């Protein structure tokens, strides 16, 4: 969470051996140059198994980012469990690793970004809920099925970046630390709306320090799609943009996570999708607009993977 965190990175780091470790959190799963008219963009990627191995080999002491000055780049640590927030994890080299976030939308379903599931099988993924720290605590669930939007693309444009996971066993929604989040209705969120991002994304613009153990939160505002386009993003009506001042935004590890508004209770309005290749440069963060996909979500959880 670099800011809160989306994952973006400069491919040039691959050319410098001294920066090789950095690529574990900064190299994109795919580079969305097609979405930018003049700004290089990328998904707030999940980590590939190769990147996880590279990070492990370069971090045998397993140190976590703790610099209070750089916390979430304008954000702050969360003090209370966010009951709908999940950590998507893979098991590599004898331990679990966070690679994306998601939101609980039913007793058995999680909403996340489609790009998080690229080249993944359900049996590789586990879902951790009911905790502030992705490494410890909470309940771990397996994934038995997943559906990425059939129109998802990351080639010329990143579009339809949304997916649903089905877990086993069902979430224990009787616990106060675990709950679903409202998806609201088809009403579109406009500009200048206060929104909140939560996630375990990198605290630094390049992801060089790894991921924070504790959940982070960032409060900022939406901007209009027109302004987002003027700032260099080729978005569609099915995306939503938010913007903070320089040093505040999403980053590596925030992908798939929730952007919410408060209408008495939290409402999910966005899913972390992509942003600039280096995080928190005063450029917009782009989210999948949840209200545009309510029919798709309802179809998946009611008939495709009920």
UniProtKB/TrEMBL annotation:
Source taxonomy: Eukaryota, Metazoa, Ecdysozoa, Arthropoda, Hexapoda
Keyword Hydrolase listed: yes
BP-aspect Gene Ontology terms: proteolysis
InterPro entries according to UniProt: Peptidase_S1 (IPR050430), Peptidase_S1_PA (IPR009003), Peptidase_S1_PA_chymotrypsin (IPR043504), Peptidase_S1A (IPR001314), Trypsin_dom (IPR001254), TRYPSIN_HIS (IPR018114), TRYPSIN_SER (IPR033116)
Protein name: Chymotrypsin-2
Organism: Bactrocera dorsalis (Oriental fruit fly)
Cell location: Secreted
Transport among keywords: no
Entry GO MF terms: serine-type endopeptidase activity
Residue ranges of domain Peptidase S1 in the record: 72-302
Keywords: Disulfide bond, Hydrolase, Membrane, Protease, Secreted, Serine protease, Transmembrane, Transmembrane helix
Encoding gene per record: LOC105229511
């Amino acid at each position: 969470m670099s800011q809160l965190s989306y994952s973006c990175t400069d491919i040039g780091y691959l050319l410098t051996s001294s920066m090789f470790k950095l690529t574990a959190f900064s190299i994109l799963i795919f580079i969305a140059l097609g979405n930018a008219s003049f700004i290089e963009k990328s998904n707030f990627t999940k980590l590939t198994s190769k990147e996880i191995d590279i990070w492990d080999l370069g971090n045998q002491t397993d140190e976590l980012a703790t610099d209070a000055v750089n916390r979430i780049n304008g954000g702050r640590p969360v003090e209370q469990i966010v009951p709908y927030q999940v950590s998507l994890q893979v098991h590599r080299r004898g331990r679990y690793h966070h690679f994306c976030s998601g939101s609980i939308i039913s007793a058995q379903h999680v909403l996340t970004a489609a790009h998080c599931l690229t080249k993944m099988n359900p049996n590789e993924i586990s879902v951790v809920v009911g905790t502030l720290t992705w490494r410890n605590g909470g309940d771990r669930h397996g994934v038995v099925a997943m559906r990425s939007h059939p129109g998802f693309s990351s080639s010329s444009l990143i579009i339809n970046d949304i997916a649903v996971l089905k877990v086993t066993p069902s979430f224990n929604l009787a616990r106060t630390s675990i709950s679903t989040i409202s998806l609201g209705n088809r009403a579109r969120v406009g500009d200048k709306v206060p929104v909140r991002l939560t996630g375990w994304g990198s605290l630094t613009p390049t992801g060089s320090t790894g991921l924070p153990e504790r959940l982070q939160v960032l409060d900022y505002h939406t901007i209009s799609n027109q302004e987002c386009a003027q700032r260099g993003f080729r978005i569609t009506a099915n995306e939503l943009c938010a913007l903070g001042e320089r040093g505040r935004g999403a980053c590596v590890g925030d992908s798939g996570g929730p952007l919410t508004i408060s209408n008495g209770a939290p409402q999910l309005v966005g899913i972390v999708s992509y942003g600039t290749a280096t995080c928190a440069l005063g450029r917009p963060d782009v989210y999948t607009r949840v209200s545009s996909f309510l029919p798709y979500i309802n179809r998946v959880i009611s008939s495709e993977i009920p």
